[in-house]
Amino acid sequence: MKAESLPNEKLIASNRKAHFNYFLSEFQEAGIELVGSEIKALRMGHCSIDDSYVIIKNCQAYILNMNIPLFQENGIFSHDPVRTRKLLLHKSQILKLDQAVAREGYSIIPARVYLKKGMCKVQIALGKGKKNWDKRQAIKDREDKINMAKAIKKSY
């Protein structure tokens, strides 16, 4: 799925590194448990999920290293910017993800964070790590696409 947001969604953050470092599949939408100052900061557009990942512990899904900076006007009632946050998923979805991680060696990677109907959602995906030669091939394909676009533009 592309990083652009749909008409009824406001994109807050996307994880571009994830597409480079992993083969992503099986995208799912999950809610996220937030406190008041965190949702205020998200609505302002402040969030980073570059180094974040999802773990499953005690049949619950948690997102780690998701950075939501402090909301300035909140004073002393602020949150911890990189605290562990609970993801809101059905039990069957959590079990399916846990089985994929345990058996097939996948990782659960957050792909993007967005607001949908006033609620904060996280799109998570199963990711299989790329090898170095896969990454070199991705760079080569991207450069070839850019060169082809330049050649087409130059011919007109």
Structure summarized in a few sentences:
The protein has 156 residues and is of the alpha+beta class.
List the helices and strands and how they pair.
Elements: E1 9-14, H1 16-21, E2 22-32, H2 36-43, E3 53-57, E4 60-64, E5 85-88, H3 91-104, E6 107-116, E7 119-129, H4 132-155
Antiparallel strand pairs: 1-6, 2-5, 2-7, 3-4, 4-5, 6-7
Outline the structure in words.
The chain has one domain (9-130): Small protein B (Small Protein B, Chain: A, Beta Barrel), CATH 2.40.280. It has four helices and seven strands; from the N terminus they run βαβαβββαββα. It has helices spanning 16-21, 36-43, 91-104, 132-155; strands at residues 9-14, 22-32, 53-57, 60-64, 85-88, 107-116, 119-129. It has a seven-stranded antiparallel beta sheet. The model has no long low-confidence stretch (mean pLDDT 88).
